[in-house]
Write a structure and sequence with these properties.
Elements: H1 2-29, H2 37-60, H3 82-92, H4 98-118, H5 136-148, H6 150-176, H7 184-233, H8 248-255, H9 268-277, H10 285-305, H11 307-322
Helix pairs in contact: 1-2, 2-3, 3-4, 4-7, 5-7, 6-7
Length: about 325
């Protein structure tokens, strides 16, 4: 009776896991926006299935820390993927507290890597991911150095592509054959390869995850400093930031140097009338030329008839005849 009950529990775990696995595959191939309600509902449903499967695996005690991968039954290898899938799903969740979500995903990812290393699936160096590292900045620097290593990234990319190709081949074989003891080797190869594929995938996840965590921690520190500063001044900030909508006209205005609003103060008719009154606009060019010539001739004729002006002009001419240019400036010339 006990054996039958245990078998039923294992079948139940398998069913719950496969439901979550199917949802996870749909999520990976879903082209809907990640913040849409339908997408987030799928993510939440998949998380619930995998959390329930994890609780069942723990209660059944399927894994032991002192066993090797070869000792794990093929039907149980899939459950190694539970923390990897949960971490991936948490990264896809849209939650107000992003930092908490990242920390949860990190716990799942590190747990997955530790299990894979303990069972010999990978020989990855876990020191860069564990909490015993000196600081988040040190971890991030180590991750960035690894991510910036061109050769390592190229090798990982090629390895992932080859793993994807082999996984597709194994999936095709498994879908065409009946799942009996004869194809157990194919199933085992498939799940071991899937574990290695997710090791590489989680390394990439952790690289971007730590970078995002460092940015969020920095922003959190800035907010706290700002709040303390405002409390010290006892002057709560009343400044509000309005969203700026950049349009094509705004961009064009800045390109041509008109980066400020130009508000007219008068109509075109008022401006023209003002210019005419100030003499800056000539409406009848020929009449204005005639008037200018007439005015000039009147001035000249007035000058010729004035005896005082004529006497002054003659005196000036006679003085210039008797005093050559430069005679009056003899200072300091010896």
């Amino acid at each position: 009776m006990a054996a039958a009950s245990e078998s039923n529990d294992e079948d139940s775990v398998k069913g719950v896991f496969e439901q979550g696995f199917l949802l996870h595959c749909q999520i990976e191939n879903d082209e809907a926006p990640s913040n849409s309600d339908a997408f987030q509902e799928k993510v939440s449903a998949a998380v619930n299935h995998f959390v329930r499967a994890t609780e069942m695996v723990n209660s059944l005690g399927l894994f032991s820390s002192n066993e090797e991968l070869s000792e794990v039954p093929t039907s149980e290898l899939r459950y190694f993927l539970l923390p990897a899938f949960l971490g991936d799903l948490f990264l896809r969740q849209m939650a107000p507290d992003r930092l908490t979500v990242l920390n949860i995903a990190k716990v799942y990812f590190v747990d997955f890597l530790k299990r894979c290393k303990n069972y010999g699936v990978t020989d990855i160096d876990l020191s860069r991911y564990t909490e015993n590292s000196s600081s988040l900045s040190d971890i991030n620097r180590s991750l960035n150095q690894m991510a910036n290593s061109r050769q390592e990234k190229i090798a990982r990319y090629k390895e992932q592509k080859e793993q994807e190709r082999k996984l597709k081949e194994l999936q095709d074989i498994l879908s065409e054959t009946t799942k009996t003891i004869q194809d157990e080797d194919t199933q085992r190869n498939y799940y071991v390869l899937l574990l290695k594929f997710w090791v590489n995938k989680i390394v990439e996840h952790l690289t971007s995850l730590h970078s995002e965590m460092e940015i969020l921690e920095h922003m959190k520190t800035i907010r706290k400093d700002k709040e303390h500063s405002q409390m010290g001044d006892n002057q709560p900030s009343t400044k509000t930031f309005k969203p700026i909508l950049i349009t094509r006209e705004m961009t064009k205005a800045k390109v041509f140097g008109a980066g400020y609003p130009s508000v007219p103060t008068m109509t075109q008719e008022e401006f023209l009338e003002k210019e005419i009154l100030e003499g800056k606009v000539v409406l009848d060019f020929e009449n204005s030329q005639t008037q200018d010539k007439s005015h000039k001739s009147d001035v000249e004729s007035d000058g010729e008839d004035d005896p005082a002006k004529l006497k002054k002009q003659r005196d000036w001419d006679e003085w210039k005849d008797d005093h050559r240019r430069g005679w009056g400036n003899r200072e300091n010339m010896g």
